[in-house]
């Protein structure tokens, strides 16, 4: 994989507004309200070879309507949700901003604004320091869950520049394995976090997968999301835990629903899919709720009813939350729903009503829907959904056939589909956003997720 565009990790997010009010200019018309528009398509390339210093041009696409927008305000931040440092502003009609020697690395945020204040929603892009390389400063990690009870979870490392890989990189780096049933992995700041369900542990490593700390958890960890210097983890016994990324201690837990799975951050809240999966054969049955946890108080505030057995969840740049409910594997099918970020109203996504798994990248949901057939192999459709326009299409456009998709994830500028037959090592297929295959790579047994991490002194 010789492509150099792995350096950009882009995502649109909903941010809590810290609005301002300025004096009206008597010579200009007064806007009716604070803008609600959001820019899209952020891009940034660091052109500064100094370590921990950014220079370059941040660019974006203007909202479809700028009727109530007079300017854009740009911030640097350590996270995608907090305004750390205002860098400047440009008038509407200008869709770029030049950065020179900015040292507050992490994220760049762009807010539409006018004289009354800034929009509540923003666009953000996570940026990475060039550090004087030729741009090839990343390597990919594939987290492989293995088979439950077999103590064979692994972490595959793949170097996009050289094409070299290590099938058990965690073992190589630490002299021990991950253990039983790895579930999720995220990269946040200078660390990676790996949830190992069967071990009730969270492995915290540096970006070379060298262990920093192994955290014992009071529940079996499932999925993670990071925001504002914290990592939030679902425990399968019905809790969400908050982990501080500085102390690497679990600060608090909050009860949610039964057997929670994925979680997402939007609107200064955490949305948690409560599956109730362990009760499938009991009179209680599956759960059918999404818990909402207020980030500032870390308290559960409500439960939103969805189709039964919700497991997958993603948020878009406008604060809308997308949920896949797996149903009952019978008369209730896999159903893709949207929770309106403003009203909390739940609706089936009619343009793309069924999905098995999904990921989100730069304003687009990438989904697949897989159903077993009499042939013994699943029939699968791959559908993308543009969260701004509502447009759908088959997003694998080059005819690549994936017989048994197992997971889908997005990182950098690529979407990755993992394939598994549950018995042999799987493969990971990397696609660009035009739907063309870049490369296929052998992974481990049951590849769960792909992440991208910066190399330093490999």
TrEMBL record:
Record keywords, A-Z: Signal
Classification via Gene3D superfamilies: Immunoglobulins (2.60.40.10), YVTN repeat-like/Quinoprotein amine dehydrogenase (2.130.10.10)
Signal peptide: 1-23
InterPro entries: DUF5074, FN3_dom, Host-pathogen_enzymatic-act, Ig-like_fold, Quino_amine_DH_bsu, WD40/YVTN_repeat-like_dom_sf
Domain of life: Bacteria
Keyword Signal appears in the UniProt entry: yes
Transmembrane residue ranges: none
Xref: PANTHER family: DIHYDRO-HEME D1 DEHYDROGENASE, PROTEIN NIRF
Protein name, UniProt field: 40-residue YVTN family beta-propeller repeat-containing protein
Organism expressing this protein natively: Candidatus Parabacteroides intestinigallinarum
Taxonomic placement: Bacteria, Pseudomonadati, Bacteroidota, Bacteroidia, Bacteroidales
